Each structure stands twice: as structure tokens, then as C-alpha cells.
């Protein structure tokens, strides 16, 4: 019976991730995306660490195939950021409390913002390779950052709430 419960929980985690990964293709607001939340959620609830790292990257890549690929430098920064968010999820798995989930979500957004905008600057196509250029790059990205914060926090709260509801209220998902 315990094996059926474990399989049910794995299915629940994968179903939540797949549903919102599908939505990434259809959300048209800038920087509102479930990808960082998927990485945080997956890192927290997927038992195998390797799978917790690779699954969000795979979801990101498949959705990028539909949305369009972009600069290899920026893709490396985005994928690296998502990998770091998965590591935050690994830490969170032993510290799941509402304040930690919110803090992890906010930290994930800040990391994504800092790394990806640094990559935009470092690519050297849009901003001069000076301290002023770097500051300008970050300043110009601030309007998009609020969407990143709202999107990641919103999706994270929804994922964790759905999981908590299902595992506490639906007998097929309750711990054995």
C-alpha cells in the first residue's frame, strides 16, 4: 500500500508540473512564467536529486522549442538560474514552512534577475561593457522584475498549496 501512495505522490508532483509547464506556452505577459516555481517545487518534492534537477530544465527546453530558441549566452544564464533554483528547492525539502517557501521564491526571483541580466550585459550587444552599462542594464530590467516576482511567487504558492491540499485531503495522496 505504501508503494501505491508513493506512486500517487510522484504522479501528483509530475501532474502539477506538467500542467503549469503547458501554460508557459500560453502566458503572454512578460516574465510571468511558472518555470522558476516548477524548479523550486520539483527540487522540494521530487525524491531523486538528479531528476529534481533535470526535469525543470527539460520542461524549460521543451517549452523553449515551442516559444523559440534565443541567444546561447542568455539560454545558458536562464538554464543555470533554473538549476540554482532547483538547488534552493533541495534545501527547502527539509524546511517547508510558509515563510521559507515565500523566502525561497523571492530568492529565486532575485537570483534569476541578477544572473540573466548580467548575461544580457556580458553578451555586449545592448549595453556598453562598462560599470555604467551594467547599471543601466539592471535599471532597464526593473520593470520586468516585478512581473518575475509576482509570477514566481504566485505560481510557487499555487503549487505548494495544491500539493498540501492533495496530500492532506485526498486519501490516494496521504502519507502511509
The percent range for helix content is over 70%
How much β-strand is present in the residues? under 5%
CATH class: Mainly Alpha
- Give me the count of strands: 0
Class based on secondary structure composition and strand pairing: mainly alpha
What separation lies between the terminal Cα atoms?
8 Å
**How would you describe the shape?**
elongated
SSE ordering: HHHHHH
- What is the arithmetic mean of pLDDT? 85
Sheet with most strands: none
- And the CATH topology? Arp2/3 complex 21 kDa subunit ARPC3
| Residue runs with pLDDT of under 50 for 5 or more positions | none
Proper CATH architecture: Orthogonal Bundle
Number of continuous helical runs: 6
Gyration radius (Cα, Å) is: 17 Å
- Counting structural domains, the number is 1
Verbal overview:
- With about 180 residues, the protein is mostly helical.
- The protein has one domain: Arp2/3 complex 21 kDa subunit ARPC3, CATH 1.10.1760.
- The chain has six helices and no strands.
- Helix 3 packs antiparallel against helix 4 (about 70-90).
- The longest helix has about 40 residues, at about 130-170.
Which terms would index this structure?
elongated, 176 residues, Arp2/3 complex 21 kDa subunit ARPC3, 0% strand
Question: How would you briefly describe this protein structure?
Answer:
The chain is mainly alpha-helical. The protein is built from 6 helices and no strands.
Amino acid at each position: 500500500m505504501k508503494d501505491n501512495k508513493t506512486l500517487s505522490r510522484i504522479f501528483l508532483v509530475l501532474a502539477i508540473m506538467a500542467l503549469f509547464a503547458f501554460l508557459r506556452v500560453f502566458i503572454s505577459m512578460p516574465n510571468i512564467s511558472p518555470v522558476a516555481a516548477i524548479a523550486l517545487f520539483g527540487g522540494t518534492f521530487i525524491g531523486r536529486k538528479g531528476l529534481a534537477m533535470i526535469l525543470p530544465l527539460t520542461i524549460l527546453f521543451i517549452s523553449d522549442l515551442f516559444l523559440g530558441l534565443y541567444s546561447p549566452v542568455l539560454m545558458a544564464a536562464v538554464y543555470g538560474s533554473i538549476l540554482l533554483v532547483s538547488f534552493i528547492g533541495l534545501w527547502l525539502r527539509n524546511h517547508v514552512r510558509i515563510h521559507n517557501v515565500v523566502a525561497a521564491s523571492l530568492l529565486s526571483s532575485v537570483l534569476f534577475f541578477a544572473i540573466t541580466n548580467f548575461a544580457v550585459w556580458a553578451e555586449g550587444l545592448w549595453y556598453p561593457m562598462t560599470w555604467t552599462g551594467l547599471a543601466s542594464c539592471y535599471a532597464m530590467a526593473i520593470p520586468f522584475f516585478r512581473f518575475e516576482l509576482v509570477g514566481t511567487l504566485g505560481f510557487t504558492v499555487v503549487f505548494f498549496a495544491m500539493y498540501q491540499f492533495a496530500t492532506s485531503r485526498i486519501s490516494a495522496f496521504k502519507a502511509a
